[in-house]
Amino acid sequence: MAFSRRSFLKYAAMSAGGAALADTPFISAEARAKAEGGNVKYVPTSCEMCFWKCGAVAKVVDGKVVKLEGNPFHPQSRGKLCARGQGGIGQLYDEDRLKHPMIIDGPRGAGKYREASWDEALTYVAKKLKAIAAKHGPESIGMMSHGSPGDYFTNVLKAMGSHNIAFPSFAQCKGIRDEAWLLTYGHKPGSSCEQVDLENSRVIVLIGTHLGENMHNSQNQEFAEAIGRGAKIICVDPRYSTAASKAAFWLPIKPGTDTALLLTWINIIISENWYDKEYVEKYTEGFEQVKEAVKQYTPEWAAQETELPMRQIVESVRELSRYAPNVVVHPGRHYSWYGNDTQRARAVAILNALLGTWGRKGGMWLPPKAKFAKFNDDTPAYPPASKPPLIKGNFPFAGGEGVTQVLRDATITGKPYPIKAWFVAGTNLMKTLPDQRLTRKAIDNLDFFVAVDLFPTETVMLADVILPECTYLERHDGLFKIKTREAGVAIRQPAVEPMYDSKPAWWIGSELCKKLGLNEYAVKGNGMDAWEGRMRRQAKAWGIDYDKLAKHTGYVTIPGSERPYITADNQPVFNTFSEKIELYSEDLEEEGFDPVPQYEEIEHPEKGMYRLIYGRSPVHTFSRTINTQWLWELEKENEVWLNKKEAVRLGVKNGEYVRLENQDGVRSNKIKTKVTERIRHDCVYMVHGFGHNAPRMKRANGSGADDQKLITKYIEDPITGGTGMRVNFVKIIKEA
Ligand SMILES: Nc1nc2c(c(=O)[nH]1)N[C@H]1C(S)=C(S)[C@@H](COP(=O)(O)OP(=O)(O)OC[C@H]3O[C@@H](n4cnc5c(=O)[nH]c(N)nc54)[C@H](O)[C@@H]3O)O[C@H]1N2
Ligand SMILES: Nc1nc2c(c(=O)[nH]1)N[C@H]1C(S)=C(S)[C@@H](COP(=O)(O)OP(=O)(O)OC[C@H]3O[C@@H](n4cnc5c(=O)[nH]c(N)nc54)[C@H](O)[C@@H]3O)O[C@H]1N2
Ligand code: SF4
Ligand SMILES: [Mo]
Fold it and tell me: For 720, how many CA atoms within 13 A lie in the half-sphere containing its CB?
């Protein structure tokens, strides 16, 4: 049985009008299976195969998860899961998982460990952390994390007095974009999912943003619906991506010149009077300054700079303006491209404002309105930070999520003060941070390194203590606040008991608090159901029926929270100084940056070298799913895309294995060539995440090539600290 959107609508209709709560599709499916004598349960929960956090329903037969399906109630899954979501069972039953706590038993990197009990491992971790805190101050303990385990260890670090906590989702991902939109709108363009009303868009512009390969579930469903309805796609990408293949306009831009295109579009819209005058008048500030600042960016100039035909530049923006405001220039997500990325994000934000998309149908929906009661389960406030955190570096607009590489730098240089220990949870730093040589050097410098993960990755296998978390299908987490067009709450709860000697992160963090003598920060209550008890108290504080959420729906809506479009009585609120959309940014000006984005030229490769660009596979998430059985079977290795003419020149055949060597002489694993006309002549492309150097991950180890190994150069964005990573050039080396 599949849970369709229709089954959800049927349920909604049955339960309407104050009738008794009807059985939800999973409750009825469970009842039917039981009537036939099966030992079957359906458990609504939340997917963690990526960060979209879709609602999933696990079908459990005789204590084994046999199927994962999309929860029809959850707006991010709408009854469907992507391939990775369905493949989650492969993560749960992966025989290469970490099975026991381990303590290092030899030099770092030699891969020698001894198994330990949880009590022994946590006692050891607490002893080490206490000693380091006593000698160097708690601030010398740094944490890096991504995903749901982070919260529990943030709690431990803050309770100890360290606020040196950083998330790669900032400087290696979307933090750059978020700060640019905060400067412009006083809002991020989405909390977890982007506020794009693709479902209703008439024209969608994608700059890089490779929807269809970047596989965020509901966003792709909406994108497909939009295409089905005849929405026009304008796709700016040096590669003929999946999205480009659906586009009315494919603009094969010279990599790194996007801001030239964006500023020229802004100039055209203004000089042709195609912008939304009423909207600009009412909601924005700084229009005249923008008009002046972009005058120099003519279509002739842009055509030269971007290597796009002038006609295409003009016609695409004419089409975009024609349907404004029911259009959107997608704000994108991964922004750490060239080191001048905050200004590119500003240009996208300004273009949207001129088209009047914020709060308009088919543009950007307004954030939902919902207040959640404060809930901290009577945990005392944290002690003040022992020293001001260093995670913002010298970047005036770095966000609170921290600039990961600043922690790494301080570990190497001891400046502005030394970081001596790392706590790493749910991030594979060797794959995630640019310049692996520096990551390794920093790790070698550490007095102590703890990793909490599911797998023996290249990063984990450098840790002094390895703590095995159980997978999302074996644990409680959350409750999660979900912000789509509406606000809602979702649950994560175990479908099965933790396998081996793995434990949920909440438990690990809580036990560690106790070992550190910080009992007041531990989860209240004892035993493995303590966290569920907390979730129940939280649901109560929020006025949510926990049992209904846990058993019937897995997701509940906050009624009345959905107010997506501007109307007379639903005006947008801009949390900027002027309370308007700041096209001209005085905040940037005060810090010595361009208040209106200006174009900066970047370095381009010489002949014979190619810019290395990278992206996503629809069936993998970064490096974390490569070892996952069925996903690995779908895609075992990545390929390097090489333009056909270049391949002929080099004598490289389609399917031939080559190696890539970068400007610093660093060589990749061997990688299969995809010879294609679908990419420009000056760049090569590969999917990120492959090429593991992790012998205990049997499927992933050595398959494909690692883009990060070749990214030995990066340029930091002076505004936010984002690491521009598409600044490496490679040549192709034929295998002997
Ligand atoms: N299946 C799957 N989906 C995912 C993820 C995953 O791991 N797997 N990860 C998620 C996360 S966290 C993120 S941040 C997003 C990232 O996904 P996006 O935000 O879509 O990432 P981008 O880097 O914008 O897009 C990569 C595209 O940019 C193109 N490109 C490269 N250089 C340039 C350039 O100079 N200019 C232009 N215009 N285009 C260029 C590449 O050819 C490629 O098609 O994906 C999310 N979705
Ligand atoms: N070269 C290059 N670098 C990039 C990118 C790129 O495209 N190219 N993308 C950037 C972007 S956009 C992002 S968001 C980051 C992503 O960076 P990361 O999130 O670090 O990506 P992964 O490589 O998937 O590493 C995730 C780690 O978490 C572990 N893990 C998975 N699930 C769980 C869990 O439930 N509990 C615990 N404790 N651990 C778990 C996995 O085993 C894996 O070791 O990388 C950034 N870095
Ligand atoms: S998009 Fe796919 S992998 Fe990500 S949460 Fe949703 S189903 Fe899971
Ligand atoms: Mo990301």
Answer: 34
3-state secondary structure of 142: strand
The span from the CA of 444 to the CA of 732, in Å, is 32
* C-alpha 337 to ligand 1 mean position (Å): 10
Residues, CB-to-ion distance under 5 Å, ligand 4 = 173
The tally of CA atoms less than 13 A away on the side-chain side of residue 452 is 33
Q: Express each pLDDT in 293-345 by its tens digit.
A: 999 999 999 999 999 999 999 999 999 999 999 999 999 999 999 999 999 99
Distance 690 CA to ligand 2 centre (A): 12
Q: Is the distance from CB of 340 to CB of 600 less than 8 angstroms?
A: yes
Ligand approaching nearest to the C-alpha of 88: 3
Tell me if 684 CB under 6 Å of ligand 1. no
Residue 216 CB–ligand 3 contact under 6 Å = yes
CB 54 within 8 A of CB 71: yes
Half-sphere exposure of residue 306: CA atoms within 13 angstroms, side-chain side: 29
Per-residue pLDDT at 28: 87
Residue 321: the pLDDT is: 98
Distance of alpha carbon 262 from alpha carbon 257, whole angstroms? 9
Q: What is the 3-state secondary structure (H, E, C) of 405-427?
A: HHHHHHHHHCCCCCCCEEEEECC
Half-sphere exposure of 77 (CA within 13 A, CB side): 35
Ligand 2: atom nearest CA of 622 is: 24
The CB of 52 under 6 Å from ligand 3? The reply is yes
CA distances from 399 to 166, 585, 613 (A): 10, 17, 26
- Give me ligand 3 centre to Cα 627, in Å: 17
Are 660 and 640 in contact by the 8 Å Cβ rule? The answer is yes
Q: Whose CA is nearest to atom 32 of ligand 2?
A: 426
Instruction: Quote the distance between the C-alpha of residue 63 and its chain's center.
Output: 32
User: Which tokens belong to 3?
Assistant: 């849970």
pLDDT tens column, 48-101:
999 999 999 999 999 999 999 999 999 999 999 999 999 999 999 999 999 999
CB of 492 within 6 A of ligand 2: the answer is no
Q: How, if at all, do strands 55-61 and 40-46 pair?
A: antiparallel
User: Does ligand 2 lie within 6 Å of residue 168's CB atom?
Assistant: yes
What confidence score (pLDDT) does residue 736 get? 76
Task: Determine whether the shortest distance from the Cβ of 678 to ligand 1 is under 6 A.
Answer: no
pLDDT at 191: 87
CA gap 535, 477 in Å, rounded:
8
Instruction: Give the number of the ligand closest to the Cα of residue 46.
Output: 3
Indicate the top mutation candidate among 49, 613, 623 to test ligand 1's pocket, ranked by most ligand atoms within 8 A of CB. 613
Ligand 3 centre and the CA of 519: distance in Å?
35
* Parts of the chain with a pLDDT under 50: 18-19
Confidence at residue 439, expressed as pLDDT on a 0 to 100 scale: 98
3-class secondary structure, 339: coil
Q: What is the pLDDT of residue 1?
A: 55
Count of CB atoms within 10 A of residue 481's CB?
15
- Ligand having the closest approach to the CA of 725: 2
Work out the number of other CB atoms within 10 angstroms of the CB of residue 666: 18
3-state secondary structure at position 648:
helix
pLDDT of residue 23: 76
Residue 179 near residue 482 (C-beta atoms within 8 A): no
Q: Is 461 helix (H, G, I), strand (E, B) or coil?
A: helix
Full-model pTM = 0.97
Confirm or reject: Cβ of 610 under 6 Å from ligand 1. no
| Rg from Cα positions in the chain | 26
Alpha-carbon torsion 41, 42, 44, 48, what sign?
A: positive
In whole angstroms, give the CA distance from residue 35 to residue 31: 6
* Confidence (pLDDT) at 24: 83
Rounded to 5 degrees, φ, ψ at 211 are: -55, 140
Nearest of 167, 94, 211 to residue 625 by alpha carbon: 94
